[in-house]
Amino acid sequence: MRILMVGAGATGGYFGGRMALADRDVTFLVRGKRKEQLQRDGLRIAGPAGEAVLSQPKLITAEELKSAGAFDVVIISVKAYSLESAMNDFAPAVGDNTVIVPILNGMRHLDTLAHRFGKEKVMGGSVRIVCDVEPDGVIRQMTKLDHMNFGEIDGTVTTRAQALHDTFAVPGITLVLSKDIIDTMWQKWWILSTMGAVCVLGGGNVGEIVATGEHGVAMALAVQDEAIAIATANSHPADAEFVKGHGHRMTEAGSTLTSSMYRDMTKGLPVEADHILGDLLARANGVKAPLLGAAYTHLKVYEGRRG
């Protein structure tokens, strides 16, 4: 099965790298500087399980992809604000039987992809991992999380979904073929929105925010309540036990946990303000969410300053 991984950053590099290390036929669609880095140094992963190196990853550019033929599956791992340009780049790889599995944040991209390529080609996908690309190109996995969920939008377990499961099932990936991927995506969305908003509003990691005292803790839990209320208003309530556990993680003294959105902001990079928080607020269905709104406003001011 020919797999095209669109993006070889932290998330795409990790999951595509794990598949390639297990002898799956993975090609990474990359651009300029990242391609040069991967050609020179290989794809390197470091984390709790140790280090792994894919010395000669298969790489392809958008121009080269025009003559490469159709792929069996296209996994999209780019930031939401890059989706439009990414679709133009990988479009030549989409044939009559190609399956598209996006592992982006939020939900809006499902409609965008369905409109461009047809809803029958698009599955849902969600990953849970905390990782980043270090300046030297190493993909640093910061916790043991390595979860990848995917499935048909309507929840059926089709022949193609099972075939993808068999292909994606490799060491280093905790894989689930979901019968309710939309709910899985919603659960990640409220978690991601909570972490992103808390770190943006607090201006630091979880431990730093908690160290400010009761107001920091109260803010974190109130943001979580707002995000869960919106998910519930969209018929995707959160599991009570999981909420309790997540609340503990959001208020853990000394925790260095942050969100990718906050890390991107501190580096002066673009952020997924509209796709993560803006779209969530647009689906509030009457739920009042002033703290999420404040975090979104903060991010929009940041984007305005970036120009």
Could you please describe the fold and organization of this structure?
By secondary structure, this protein is an alpha/beta fold. Strand 6 (71-76), helix 4 and strand 7 form a beta-alpha-beta unit. The protein has helices spanning 10-21, 32-41, 62-65, 83-90, 108-117, 159-168, 181-202, 206-210, 214-233, 240-250, 260-266, 273-282, 290-306, and strands at 2-6, 25-29, 43-47, 50-54, 58-60, 71-76, 94-102, 124-128, 131-133, 139-141, 147-151, 174-177. It folds into 2 domains: 2-179, 3-Layer(aba) Sandwich (Rossmann fold); 184-306, N-(1-d-carboxylethyl)-l-norvaline Dehydrogenase, domain 2 (Orthogonal Bundle). Helix 7 runs antiparallel to helix 9, helix 7 (181-202) packs parallel to helix 11 (260-266) and helix 7 crosses helix 13 (290-306). The protein is globular, with a radius of gyration of 19 Å. It starts with a strand and ends with a helix.
Distance between the termini: 42 Å
At the fourth level of CATH, the homologous superfamily of the largest domain is NAD(P)-binding Rossmann-like Domain
The count of strands amounts to 12
Residue share in β-strands: 15-25%
User: What's the gyration radius in Å?
Assistant: 19 Å
User: What is the average per-residue confidence, as pLDDT, rounded to a whole number?
Assistant: 97
Helical residue percent band? 40-55%
Overall geometry = globular
Low-confidence runs of at least 5 consecutive residues = none
Helix/strand order: EHEHEEEHEHEHEEEEHEHHHHHHH
Number of domains: 2
Structural class computed from helices and strand pairing: alpha/beta
| CATH architectural grouping of the largest domain | 3-Layer(aba) Sandwich
| Name of the top-level CATH class of the largest domain | Alpha Beta
Number of helices: 13
Organism: Terriglobus roseus
Function: Catalyzes the NADPH-dependent reduction of ketopantoate into pantoic acid.
Domain Ketopantoate reductase N-terminal: 3-154
EC number: 1.1.1.169
